[in-house]
Structure formats: structure tokens, C-alpha cells
Amino acid sequence: MKYIDEYRDGRLAMDIARQIVATADLVRSYHFMEFCGGHTHAISRYGLEDLLPPNVRMIHGPGCPVCVLPIGRIDAAIALAMRPEVTLCTYGDLMRVPGSDGSNLLKAKAAGADIRMVYSTLDALRIAEAEPNRDVVFFAIGFETTTPPTALALKAAIAKGLGNFSIFCNHVLTPAAIQNILESPDVRKLGTIKIDGFIGPAHVSTVIGTEPYEFFAEEFQKPVVVAGFEPLDVIQAILMLVRQVNDGRHEVENQYIRAVTVFGNEKAQAEVANFFELRESFEWRGLGEVPYGALRLRPQYATYDAEKRFSMVTPAAKDNPACECGAILRGARNPADCKLFGTVCTPDTPMGSCMVSSEGACAAHWTYGRLREKARQADAGRAVA
Amino acid sequence: MCLAIPVQVKEVLPDDMAKVTLGGVSKIISTALVDDVKVGGYVVLHVGYALAKIDPEEAERTLALIREAAIGDAA
Ligand code: SF4
Fold first, then answer.
1. Which end of chain A is less congested by CB atoms within 10 angstroms, N or C?
2. Could you report the predicted ipTM of this complex, rounded to two decimals?
3. Which DSSP category does B72 fall into?
4. Which segments cross the bilayer (chain B) (predicted)?
5. Using CA atoms, how far apart are residues A28 and A170, in angstroms rounded to an integer?
6. Largest CA-CA distance found in chain A, in angstroms, rounded
7. How far does the CA of residue B14 sit from the closest CA of chain A (Å)?
8. How far apart are CA A21 and CA A30, in angstroms?
9. B contacts of A15 (beta carbons < 8 Å)
10. For atom 6 of ligand 1, which residue has the closest CA?
11. Could A257 and B1 be called an inter-chain contact, meaning their C-beta atoms sit closer than 8 Å?
12. Contact pairs from chain A to chain B, CB under 8 Å
């Protein structure tokens, strides 16, 4: 398929990997964090880590909006869906995210809650139009990529006078989270993670552009390369990062220039700004409270704000204490370091959010990395024997 | 969750909608977030909305750079 297959050429990927080996300085190590779950998925799926020399390592960041949604918000959504007048519409990714006490939206649905999986906010609007006697709530989640579609749904609902449509807003902001990773005291507690540069998100950046990363490049002196999600995109971005480190540069470079501009999609940004404002603070699962890390509806749209309309409360809920998601989301630990990984916690029985979404670090490692690790261990065993 | 895919625009429809295809499957999507959507062009599709247009020249240039990187340039 055009604009996909060309960027999956395995032979080219190997050639670039050889260039990385040739370019990386043997006496130093390079640690790059891919912030976005889309990259984590690509790295695991195409085995890119195997192509890299041992001194170039990838750290999987927190960048999956499903993974960072706190348990209390899931509990609140379930409680809302249990109300007899409410129809809760949600993206499929959210259905199996564990709330507290082993609950999730799928189980709530089985127990009789009216929960409908939608592909698009357009579907949620259609349901609200077709069923005027139901209170249709869209469970909105996602980074900057998914916020503009929520804004447009709100705009359409207002234009159509849909009084039975509202939004449970859980939209979060990428730059705030990157900053949190670099600055939070928790990171120090979890052990310092050496990060020499970032791969910037692909589709988030189609909306926000490359400009917001200039701050990190400047303030934290870290190079950022915004990259597409295909394997060649990622491996080229790694080479670009290695070169920046070698040259002592810390610039924002754009590998995904075919879809990302400096200032992004300004039309989308304007729609978002019309309907949303910053929350002073919002809890991210694994990262704790992130200042200005999320959005809420502007007060003039309170009737469309499910939190206000249904006086929703977000219960304080704790993750399973054995779950290492917090450290994994910050790149301080690897999925295989978690005691629950692959035993109690699998994609069929996720304990933590990193195992739920296919873009989560634990799920990606379960699907693609696990067997590789076994093969590596077997190889090592043979080498010793 | 943030994954989006390049799709080709087959038909521009009224009310900022368009018909697109991906690997032979067609879909109606919203193009309200991008300007000047043209038949034959490619857009990045995410949860039913076009988020950005794909610039064919930049796509070519990226591939050229990748090929260059693969043989190792002077840098
Ligand atoms: S394996 Fe499961 S329990 Fe362990 S960190 Fe990952 S998601 Fe959490």
C-alpha cells in the first residue's frame, strides 16, 4: 500500500542499522526514548532493537493514552455507564482497561450497562441523534491526535441542538508529559534514567507541529527527532539522533516531513482551543499528577460536560502494588522485570494498563519481544556450552 | 490509539466528507480538519477524520534520504 510498504523495506533497514553501527561512538552509550506507543509497537513488531548495536538502546516511554489513564477514571466511567438512562460510547481500546477490583467496561456491559464501542466520534453523534431518549456520553481519551475529532463532535452536537450528547473528557497533552518525565522527583526515586534524546510522536505532531519540542531541545539540551511509525522511519530517526549526539547538537529535526510541518494543523488547533481549556493538574497513571497535563471542556459548554452534568466523581484508586507500570512508563524498568509479567498478567488478563493496549510496553514485549528474548537466552546458553 | 493510516481520497463529498480507500476497502471520513482535499491525494486518517495531508514530494524526499543513509553519506 502506498506510503506504507515503501517504508518497510527490510534490506534498507539493515543497511541503515549498519550505518548506525558505523556512526555510533564505541566508547559511549546512547539512550533514546520513544515517547509514543506507536513507535514502541513498531520497534517490537519489526525487531528493530535487534538491529541496533549494544551501545544504542531504546527506552519505551509513556506515550499511550490508554496506558496513562488512571484507574479512578475507569471506575468513574463504569459508574456512569451503570446509570439506566446513560449510553456510554467509547473507543475499543478502553473496553478491557482494568478498573479497581478486576472490573472493566466489558464486564460492566455484560452486567447490563449500555456501553457501545465506536470507531469515531461521528458514530457517537449518530447514536445520540437516533436515540433522543438516551443520554449519550462519549468517553473521550487520547493525545493531541484524538482531541480535534472530539472538538468537532461537540461543535456538531451544538449545531444540531443535540441536548442528549455529552463528553467525559480525558484528553491529555504530550509536551507536559515529556517534561514530567524529565523533571519529576519520582523519576529520581526510581533511579535516574539516562536519556540522550527523544523520538517525537508521529501523529500527535501532525496536529501540534514540531515547534512545541523546541523548548525541550533548548531547556533540557536533548535532541528530538519527530518520526513516522514505519520501521524505516524509526531507524532513520535513530541514526539522526546518533549524529546529533556525536555532534553535540540538540535540535528538533523532522523525519516525518511528509505529514508534519513546523506549526502543525492550525485548523485543528483552533477547533480544540474553541472548546477546551487546560486543567491545572490531572493524574496520569504511572506518572502521578501532571501539571497542565490535560484538557477539560470550557465552562460555557458545561451542559455538554459529562463530569458536570452527572456530577461525576473520580474515586482515588490504587494500582496493584506489584504492577511496575509506573517505572515502565518512565523507562526506568523493562516489562520483563515485573514479577507479574507473563504469569498473572497477560493480554488476556491484564493487571496493569501497559498490558492492555497493543501500544503499551508490556503488551508489545509480550507479543513480539518475549520469544526473541528466549531465543537470545538459548543462543547464549549454546555459546557457553 | 494514536495510530493513523495513509488513505487515498476517491471522492470529495458535501459537508466536509470524503470517500477514501485503503487496500480496497472504502470508507466515508470527515475532512473538516484539512483544507483543499483533492481526489487522488493522500491523507492521514485517524478515528474517522483526516488529520493531515501527505505531501508526495516530501515523501519522495524522505525515501531518497533513507536510501542515502543506507549507503552511508559523508556525514
Ligand atoms: S506486566 Fe502487567 S502488572 Fe507488570 S508492569 Fe506490565 S502491566 Fe503492570
1. C
2. 0.91
3. -
4. none
5. 41
6. 74
7. 15
8. 12
9. 70-71
10. A362
11. no
12. 139
Q: Contact at 8 Å (CB) between A195 and A217?
A: no
Contact A229 B3 (CB under 8 A): yes
The set of cell numbers assigned to A151 is 472538538
Q: What is the DSSP letter of A366?
A: I
The answer to whether the beta carbons of residues A35 and A61 sit under 8 Å apart is yes
Cα–Cα distance measured from residue A169 to residue A180, given in angstroms and rounded to the nearest whole number: 21
Torsion of CA A90, A93, A95, A101, to 10 degrees: -120
Give Cβ neighbours of residue A354 (< 8 Å, ≥ 6 apart). Answer: A64, A67, A286, A325, A328, A329, A335, A360, A361, A362, A363
> What amino acid is encoded at A43 in this protein?
I
Task: Name residue, grid cell 519489526.
Answer: A46
A145 touches chain B (CB under 8 A): yes
A314: exposed, middle or buried (Cβ count in 10 Å: 0-12, 13-18, 19+): middle
In whole angstroms, give the CA distance from residue A229 to residue B13: 29
Taking contacts as CB-CB distances below 8 angstroms, the residues of chain A near B16 are: none
Asked if A283 and A303 count as a contact pair (C-beta separation under 8 A), the reply is no
Per-residue pLDDT of A125-174, as tens digits, reads 999 999 999 999 999 999 999 999 999 999 999 999 999 999 999 999 98
A383 CA distance to ligand 1 middle (Å): 31
N-terminal to C-terminal alpha carbon distance within chain B: 36
- Is pTM, for the whole model, over 0.80? yes
